[in-house]
Design brief:
about 325 residues; binds magnesium ion; alpha/beta; 14 helices; binds adenosine-5'-triphosphate; Rossmann fold; 6-stranded mixed β-sheet
Amino acid sequence: MKKDVLKKLTAKPGDKHKVSDFRTDYTAGLKKDEAEKLLEENTEKLAKLQDKLYAHDRYSILVIFQAMDAAGKDGTVKHVMSGVNPQGCQVYSFKVPSAEDLDHDYLWRIYKCLPERGRIGIFNRSHYEDVLVAKVHPAIVLNGKLPKINKVEDVDDKFWKKRYRQINDFERHLTENGTIILKFFLNVSHDEQEKRFLARLEDESKNWKFSASDLKERAFWDDYMKAYSDMLTNTSTDEAPWYVIPADNKWFMRYAVGQIICDRMEELKLHYPILTDAAKQEIENAKKVLAPQEEKKPATPLPRAKKATTIKDKQEEKTAKKGKKTK
Ligand code: ATP
Ligand code: MG
């Protein structure tokens, strides 16, 4: 991706951000068919890169998606990852925490789902819900039964600052230990979300995607935008910057996500393991065993086959000859 385009999509670490500063319909001058072609090429590239990631065995990739409902998280995961070996990637969707989750700190359930070395892990929602939906509805924080957090008023600015710091510390720890973190906020406009909800209501095949709670959360749009802006300002870091992806055009969103993942993985200079001389010699030896050369045939002739005597022997000889003919 061109540097100036990437710059437009990056929430610069250290700066104060507002979601409204990022366009939701930007397409970097690309046409739909051009972006689709690039996405296809990147899908193939990504499959090869993942293969090398596994062989290289030094890094894992964690791709995080956050967005308002109907922004297109599911479709983006499906399209961008469509070429990757299913054994090389894993997708986790984080829903409302369970009672067991709530008996631990909020990163516990996240830690359990981190990708192992060599793999690409996709988070459909993530620990960022704990500074998004939880910030819009602070009563959620009380469910975590934290010390000294007993009423909604206790969930103040200081509390959120601490939580952003914890997330940054957590992500720094991961990146210092070989996890590359790519964070995508799929930025859909209020109008486009309405169109997509209406499409879900009108098209019977999409009815199942609609949930009344989506409409309830839409009523909190401004609060969510404020929470997303705070998230970008406080958690876009040099190790793990936020990419704000224009989501009004699905084709551009999918292209942009795929391109950023490919570019980042290419920077890692992944390669297949370099063999030691001893390992190379072993390969040569194995080749000799599996495909012996002509001159390696035994010098002394093999003993002549015994002449068939019994009826059973004759039958076996016949079938053996037949087999040779058909080969
Ligand atoms: P889709 O609707 O496409 O199936 P989705 O990600 O919207 O995907 P839902 O089951 O509709 O899935 O929503 C999951 C819900 O779980 C969201 O409303 C989200 O805010 C909520 N959630 C996720 N993590 C937390 C959390 N830590 N605390 C409270 N709510 C959470
Ligand atoms: Mg939903």
